[in-house]
Recover the amino acids of this structure.
């Protein structure tokens, strides 16, 4: 283990080049001076005891009377100081939060070591050892703050100058994009950095790739103005998060939240249309448990959270009538009830004028089999089924059944008083559909299916070289798979009348995207496979020299994205009525998009290869 510690120091020293920013950390510390009534006192033994794990460290005040404990994990601590001829000093209940450097000056009184001065109910310790401005949300605060989605980063809006500009609907574990639209201290929206146990979980788009459960979080440090040199890369603030660790006692917590469908109010628009209220609800549960594996040496903390979210979505669609599916447009009328004529594009004269189809009916031999197949994918109207007056004729509703699972495990092991190692692994998987209002042809809806999986692993090594020098080395990796999939299959090769060469050439078989002027279109979002990733190594060495703490470190990080987007692989086509208007030279002349589709005449189109 001594070799491991030396390797850590060497790695840090090698990494500390002028071209790199210093290492970002989540560890805190305690420092101060030791005095008596006459002045500074060198050579005083000072100890730092973790009240929850029993792990202790010792140092001694130097010739300047200064002592320092850098690289201290978040927790509750006791500081003791003793020297022959003086009473033992003791202060309990010192809370060291994420990246918090507490200044505690010690004043000794003449007496014996057997006498102890215990400082209680003293003024709160103020952080004066660094230049950054920050607020800390600890575990109890995160538990008590009201938050529907339990998003620990969005709770930062309780801190002055932190503003969320996104849709407040996007506050769940799976809402990486929506919940990252935060401005800190006047900085840019989504210009922030997110750290978990000292490793960045920020993706290339400056989103937090995961929103950790409150059950796994010790605290979150909201660093608004990042004056410390060790904070870099982004122009906004930093969310510095420490994962919870186990202690010498077993602890656990659990929660369950439910919103029964029976207590959900009826939707107003459904009520006036005599539509039933769809099943919807919110079920959210989780917890955490931790304790010792080997008392005083090895500890664990595991946490998990699961939710099932069913949200009702409502819309009013405009779809063609059943008669229009067969080429009969006699029911197509304007607001006054007058029939809107459909013109035959094959009758265009030299002036661009056309003749209307007799009876406003397209002959069967003129109907495109491909166009008929695509129009048949649209739902039938439930209001005014025989007349199309341009108004909503299909009030629709759908349930978005989202689901999410997250689990984490953190292990801490202390090989000796000088060497410790911690490891964190977190996994998250979410699935989120979009509204789909086509019950009879789900593959045709303008919808999407978003599936995400995240893996985070972080290792932290702390090595106390001597009472005045401490080294830390950290490695981490993060992958964020952000994929759009096609949950319902569709094979273009099975469309009646389709060109076989065209259908066989499609990279991904799917329903085409149809933009229908005046109507609701079709086309499930295109398939895409995207993987955001990052990995890195950072480290630092801190040394107390006189009255100064000197720190050097480096952060080497690679961020990237691998993506393959198939887009609208079956084509993206627009039908706008251009070909069934009265005059070919006048693009704005009435016409009907569905009639153009039935004839097989798109106005424009594109194909993703």
């Amino acid at each position: 283990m001594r070799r491991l510690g030396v390797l850590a120091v060497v790695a840090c020293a090698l990494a500390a080049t002028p071209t790199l920013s210093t290492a970002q950390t989540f560890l805190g510390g305690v420092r101060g001076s030791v005095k008596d009534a006459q002045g500074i006192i060198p050579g005083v033994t000072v100890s730092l005891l973790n009240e929850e794990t029993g792990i202790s460290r010792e140092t001694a005040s130097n010739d300047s009377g200064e002592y320092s404990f850098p690289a201290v994990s978040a927790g509750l601590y006791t500081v003791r100081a003793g020297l022959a001829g003086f009473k033992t000093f003791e202060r309990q209940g010192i809370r060291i939060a994420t990246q918090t450097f507490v200044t505690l000056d010690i004043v000794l009184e003449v007496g014996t070591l057997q006498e102890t001065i215990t400082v209680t109910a003293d003024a709160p310790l103020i952080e004066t050892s660094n230049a950054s401005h920050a607020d800390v949300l600890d575990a109890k605060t995160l538990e008590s703050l009201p938050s529907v989605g339990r998003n620990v980063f969005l709770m930062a809006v309780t801190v002055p100058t932190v503003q969320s500009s996104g849709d407040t609907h996007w506050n769940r574990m799976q809402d990486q994009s929506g919940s990252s639209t935060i401005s800190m201290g006047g900085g840019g929206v989504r210009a922030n950095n997110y750290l978990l146990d000292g490793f960045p979980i920020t993706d290339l788009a400056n989103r937090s790739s995961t929103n950790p459960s409150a059950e796994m979080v010790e605290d979150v440090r909201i660093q608004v103005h990042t004056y410390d040199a060790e904070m870099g890369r982004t122009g906004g603030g930093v969310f510095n998060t420490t994962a919870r660790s186990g202690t010498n006692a077993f602890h656990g917590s659990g929660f369950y939240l439910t919103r029964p469908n029976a207590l959900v109010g009826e939707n107003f628009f459904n009520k006036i249309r005599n539509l039933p209220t769809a099943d919807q609800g919110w079920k959210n549960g989780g917890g955490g448990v931790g304790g010792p594996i080997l008392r005083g040496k090895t500890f664990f903390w595991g946490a998990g959270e699961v939710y099932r979210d069913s949200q009702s979505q409502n819309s009013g669609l405009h779809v063609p009538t059943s008669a229009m599916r067969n080429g009969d447009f006699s029911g197509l009328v304007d607001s006054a009830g007058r029939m809107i004529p459909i013109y035959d594009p094959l009758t265009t004269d030299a002036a661009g004028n056309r003749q209307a189809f007799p009876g406003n009916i397209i002959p069967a031999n003129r109907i495109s089999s491909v166009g008929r197949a695509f129009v048949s994918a649209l739902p039938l109207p439930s209001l005014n089924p025989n007349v199309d007056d341009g108004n909503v004729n299909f009030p629709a509703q759908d349930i978005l059944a989202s689901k999410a699972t997250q689990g984490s495990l953190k292990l801490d092991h202390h090989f000796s008083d000088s060497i410790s190692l911690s490891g964190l692994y977190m996994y998250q998987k979410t699935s989120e559909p979009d509204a789909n209002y086509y019950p009879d042809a789900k593959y045709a809806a303008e919808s999407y299916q978003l599936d995400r999986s995240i893996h985070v692993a972080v290792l932290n090594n702390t090595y106390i070289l001597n009472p005045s020098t401490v080294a830390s080395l950290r490695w981490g990796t993060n992958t964020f798979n952000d994929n759009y999939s096609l949950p319902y299959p569709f094979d273009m090769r099975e469309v009646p009348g389709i060109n076989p060469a065209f259908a066989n050439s499609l990279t991904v078989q799917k329903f085409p995207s149809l933009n229908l002027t005046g109507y609701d279109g079709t086309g499930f979002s295109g398939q895409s496979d995207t993987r955001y990733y990052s990995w890195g190594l950072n480290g630092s060495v801190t040394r107390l020299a006189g009255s100064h703490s000197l720190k050097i470190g480096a952060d080497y990080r690679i961020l990237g994205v691998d993506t393959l987007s198939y887009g609208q692989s079956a084509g993206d086509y627009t039908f706008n009525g251009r070909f069934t208007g009265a005059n070919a030279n006048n693009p704005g002349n009435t016409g009907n998009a569905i009639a153009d589709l039935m004839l097989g005449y798109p106005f424009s189109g594109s194909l993703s290869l």
